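1st attempt posting a full record on here, be nice pls
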Amino acid sequence: MAFMKRLACLLAILLLGIAGVARAAPLDNSDGFWSEWTEATFERAARERKFVIVSLQSWWCPWCLTMNRETWADPAVRAELKEHFIPVHVDQDSRPDISQRYERWGWPATVIFGPDGTEIVKLRGFYSPRFFIPVLKETVKDPSPVDYGNPGGPERGRTLATGLASGQRDAILAFMDKAYDPLHGGWSKSKLVDGPTLGWFLDRAKAGDAQAAERIRRTLTAMTALIDGDSGGISQVTLAPDWSKPSLEFPMFAQQAALTAYARAAVLFGEPAYRAAADRIYGFLESKLAGPGGGFHASMGMAEGQPGVDKRQYARESGQAIQGLAAYHDATGNRQALSLAVAAADWALRERALPGGGFRHAEQDRGGPYLADTVEMGAALLALHRSTGERKWLSAAMAAGDFIAATFVDPKTGGFVASASADAKHLPKPVKQREDNVATTRFFTLLAAYSGSARHREIAEAGMGYLASPAVVDAYAFLPDVLLAEEELRNEPVHVTVVGAKADPRSAALYAAALAYPLGYKRAEWWDKAEGPLVNPDVDYPDYPDGPAAFACTRNFCSLPVTDPAAIPAQLDRLQRGTEK
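the predicted structure (as tokens):
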């Protein structure tokens, strides 16, 4: 293998351990330099005996903009490309199927293909002309594929599971402990705003783990440095261990993660600074990312080039916004936040719905449908059911579950594929992206509790079987999201039901108190008997003649009727202790 290709391979592998902080700004293709990701492009490459070189970028990525300006526009680079390469630009936000195949390479990611679709070289991040041109020359000279190795073990056959093996769990916990930064809070050097990590430690803190409480409080306090003073949005990552260099990249998933975490932490710890942080991020969603007609814009970028708000509207990002807004409403009682969430759900059902309960990514999808859109919207609809007590949202969430089961389940492994079909005929079968597999497993776990469906539970257990397989646990070391999926699958959600008319303000007060309980994995239901039986009538609630009452229940017992909203947290604390394994 030629030296420069070996060097490219080594750099790419070393950089896989660094957070993907570079993501791309709006693209100027007025000179027609870039081609599109199409079958026709690869057919042209075969006819002309050229390589296809693909640049995956994102709207909010400063290094993508830098590479466009300094490398792709460089005359010497273009001279090398002209004879042997067809440059293709892919906006990774709009093509989840391609994005999820190469996300481990960060943005910008540069992939060189043979005309038959064979992957030859994969490059992570910014490459200057000085390093880029030799890679191009060596690829032409020696087009043999670089062997990057397989980070994970083999996929195994479908199996039902409720958790990891003890050795797997111990290894993950040990790695998380080692990754923690005791001086600055957070995990690793480049600290991401990661929802499952924050959720895992908040759950452990709520369960009485003093060390987890100390670590999550230190992290959340330090993380406020990533909240932009002007807009209120939170950067997805800091480029310095002490949180002093926010990336100025504001994707929706980071807003959802931080808004949810700060809202829960404000209730759990009674800390005004956490409530203030949640308020600022909510203000950002409301003022900057809320789009016309109810949907949400995808992201905002304020680094080099200052691309501003990406005004494209995707089902995935709107689902993430709904989940964050619902969590904020549940913790604070802010009715405007709930109204925004409901409007976004109405928009998605009107503008992005597919027959059978699924969701498109954009107004028109070139690939797809994609798992991420339907699972994020399914989780959002389930969150709205919990926040409002309205059954229509549960019906829509169950329809989304049916669509996922029919479209994205791999029957051989029990895992979930990222898209319904291959993103191109020359590429391998659709990938299984870990985060989406975790999100889908968690969605079906909670959906099963609300629906009472054994089928939903079985899909969740098959999903956990995939997450516990070598394909996942051998590929990654930092897996709080898998631990979170396991914890939820092994335990009942904390369950509280308010029995009372929805027009009665006493019922509303009880339900608001149940929603505010600072645990993410909870089943809150509002049973107005005029609406008929609950969808999952697994508890026989007694009549209470003196008006509305709340009941905290497990599958085996219920509390006495609670009529004082202030008494609900203590009842749920006892219930949580009784349901943990």
